[in-house]
């Protein structure tokens, strides 16, 4: 398995992985192109035999420069339950472009067991805490029916993190 930052040429493939994964909201291809173009330092793709089988997209929230906000984590169905998502998060933590990384954040719907298990596993491996707080309520989504999203924060992350 090869891990690397995404390139613009990958954008459409990322969208395809999402479209093929029934569980996720669909987004425009343009959004993935922007992420690959401008946010590659906080994103990672996993490639097997030159095929992208998983990715994580994220960014640093402007008001929380020591946080890595993970937006989407996606693994192709045939590559799941083999530790790939966890390894991609580890790579992202190593390649964090800021001076100091204190928290890994994500929003998660209450019923997303795989996602909760993933971030629990991350907290465990970093020997730190995990906390959930209400974030986007269902009514924030207006007429676009959506479960509420809780903010999941893993941290504080100790100084042991070394630059890749
Ligand atoms: C969530 C997802 C990325 C996990 O990918 P993965 O590569 O299978 O996860 P890993 O193998 O790295 O597993 C990480 C941890 O989560 C657990 N886990 C993974 N899938 C699970 C499932 N379906 N049910 C319960 N636990 C699960 C693993 O057991 C592991 O925990 P452990 O270390 O305590 O054993 C994958 O299921 C996926 O792409 N789902 C669809 C997209 C999605 O919902 N993304 C999250 C929201 S953006």
Automatic annotation (TrEMBL):
Coiled-coil residues: none
Pathway(s) this gene product operates in, as recorded in its UniProt entry: Amine and polyamine biosynthesis; ectoine biosynthesis; L-ectoine from L-aspartate 4-semialdehyde: step 2/3
Biological processes, Gene Ontology terms: ectoine biosynthetic process
InterPro entries: Acyl_CoA_acyltransferase, Ectoine_EctA, GNAT_dom
Top-rank lineage group of the source organism: Bacteria
Span of domain N-acetyltransferase: 1-164
Keywords in alphabetical order: Acyltransferase, Transferase
Keyword Transferase: yes
Sample GO molecular function, one term: diaminobutyrate acetyltransferase activity
E.C. number(s) listed in UniProt: 2.3.1.178
Family: Belongs to the acetyltransferase family. EctA subfamily.
NCBIfam families from the UniProt entry: ectoine_EctA
UniProt-recorded name of the protein: L-2,4-diaminobutyric acid acetyltransferase
This protein's encoding gene: ectA
């Amino acid at each position: 398995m090869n891990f690397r930052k995404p390139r613009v040429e990958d954008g459409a493939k990322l969208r395809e992985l999402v479209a093929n994964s029934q569980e996720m909201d669909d987004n425009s291809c343009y959004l993935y192109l922007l992420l690959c173009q401008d946010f590659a330092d906080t994103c990672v793709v996993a490639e097997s035999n030159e095929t992208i089988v998983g990715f994580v997209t994220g960014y640093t929230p402007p008001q929380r420069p020591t946080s890595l906000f993970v937006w989407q984590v996606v693994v192709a169905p045939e590559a799941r339950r083999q530790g790939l998502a966890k390894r991609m998060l580890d790579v992202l933590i190593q390649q964090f472009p800021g001076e100091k990384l204190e928290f890994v954040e994500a929003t998660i719907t209450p019923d997303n067991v795989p996602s909760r298990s993933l971030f629990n596993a991350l907290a465990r491996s970093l020997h730190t805490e995990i906390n959930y707080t209400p974030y986007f309520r269902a009514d924030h989504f207006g007429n676009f029916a959506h479960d509420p999203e809780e903010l999941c924060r893993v941290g504080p992350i100790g100084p042991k993190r070394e630059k890749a």
